[in-house]
Write a sequence for this structure.
């Protein structure tokens, strides 16, 4: 099992975001994390990555308790791609991807021949091999996201988390990026969890959906989530309705 949550409670200041939630996110699967703004998607991702505290409960990665892992063990278990735009002018794409090998290199960060091959393989998997010598300030937003995913792949972790990876992309690039994530999850046997507001992409490309409905977290296979009624409740009162048949949201008619 990739990610296991047991009776996990998360808070933001004095506000409880999630209260004693449990879920099992499997390997070789792409899972979308849905929820309204401010309901704790980023907070949950950061907690799973070990970058933010949890009030109580348990987070296990690949069967091991998160808080029992050393910093190096954690870096070899979970990779995290933030939502920020990244523009590193003085590093080539290959050098940026090579940063993912930091948990495996010696104290001066020297890459072995094996490390370099892993970096090249990560670039090939993301379709960015021909960009290796370019700097990231010359790339489009979609290309930059692929490089950051390649860096996470070079980190060689069984769990990869992404916070709004499609936020700055146009519609074709959103589908292309999420199709890549699905292929990587299945072919590289990764547990990939990403937050998104793209309901149509989540329901058409993902194996499962984790939906935050504070203080609850509902996690189901996509086909079951569509029929569960949870999505309808998510949009209740928002002036739109969810149509399970077409897997789309539509404005309510006046």
């Amino acid at each position: 099992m990739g990610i296991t949550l047991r009776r996990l409670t998360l808070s933001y200041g004095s506000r409880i975001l999630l209260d004693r939630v449990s879920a099992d996110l499997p390997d070789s699967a792409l899972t979308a994390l849905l929820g309204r703004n401010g309901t704790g998607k980023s907070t949950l991702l950061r907690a799973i990555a070990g970058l933010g505290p949890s009030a109580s409960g348990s987070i296990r990665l690949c069967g091991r308790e998160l808080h029992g892992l050393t910093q190096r063990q954690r870096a070899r278990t979970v990779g995290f791609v933030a939502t920020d735009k990244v523009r590193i002018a003085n590093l080539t794409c290959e050098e940026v991807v090579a940063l993912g090998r930091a948990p495996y290199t010696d104290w001066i960060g020297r890459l072995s021949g094996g490390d370099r091959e892993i970096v090249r393989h990560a670039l090939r998997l993301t379709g960015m091999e021909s960009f290796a010598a370019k700097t990231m300030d010359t790339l489009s937003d979609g290309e930059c996201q692929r490089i950051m995913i390649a860096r996470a792949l070079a980190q060689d972790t069984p769990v990869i988390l992404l916070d709004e990876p499609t936020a700055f992309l146009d519609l074709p690039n959103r589908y292309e990026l999420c199709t890549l994530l699905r292929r990587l999850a299945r072919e590289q046997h990764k547990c990939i969890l990403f937050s998104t507001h793209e309901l149509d992409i989540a329901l058409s490309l993902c194996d499962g959906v984790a939906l935050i409905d504070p203080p609850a977290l509902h996690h189901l296979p996509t086909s079951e989530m569509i029929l569960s009624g949870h999505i309808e409740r998510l949009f209740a009162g928002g002036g739109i309705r969810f149509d399970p048949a077409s897997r789309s949201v539509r404005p309510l008619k006046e």
User: Anything to note?
Assistant: The two ends are 46 Å apart (CA to CA). The domain at 3-221 is CATH 3.40.50.300 (Rossmann fold).
